[in-house]
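Design job #97: recover the sequence.
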């Protein structure tokens, strides 16, 4: 596997194209015993591919994890997932190169910039996080149609 020692602008543009075409940007809702509401929100960027090379390069360059699983018709897939601050760092780096998911990245980066990592979240901050999650859910449900609204 070719390791990335230094990420170039060309690499970032390529990674942005992968996210535009095959990736997803979202805000997940996780159960949390330490949070008084019983759950918390977390930024998630994911990519599935049938070849392990690029998911592993992304993991080496930005962090996250790569898992392997069998898909339909016995096709093996590699799933790269990066969350929270690392996901924000990745999106910030590729944002200038995104075309279809630029608006999703903007919402996600605004969410991450305001994210606080402690269980005592104010009602206002919680509502803001839930609103950002809902915006991404709507955009992701619209699919390509939403991409042309940006």
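Job complete. Output follows.
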């Amino acid at each position: 596997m070719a390791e990335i020692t230094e990420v170039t602008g060309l690499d970032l543009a390529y990674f942005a194209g992968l996210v535009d075409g095959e990736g997803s940007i979202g805000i997940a809702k996780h159960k949390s015993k330490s949070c008084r509401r019983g759950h918390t929100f977390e930024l998630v960027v994911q990519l599935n591919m049938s070849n392990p090379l690029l998911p592993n390069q992304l993991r080496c360059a930005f962090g996250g994890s790569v898992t392997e699983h069998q898909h339909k018709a016995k096709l093996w897939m590699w799933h790269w997932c990066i969350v929270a601050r690392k996901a924000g760092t990745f999106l910030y780096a590729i944002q200038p190169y995104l075309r279809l998911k630029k608006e999703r990245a903007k919402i996600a980066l605004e969410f991450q910039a305001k994210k606080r990592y402690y269980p005592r979240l104010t009602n206002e901050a919680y509502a803001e996080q839930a609103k950002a999650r809902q915006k991404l859910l709507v955009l992701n449900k619209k699919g390509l149609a939403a991409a042309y609204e940006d």
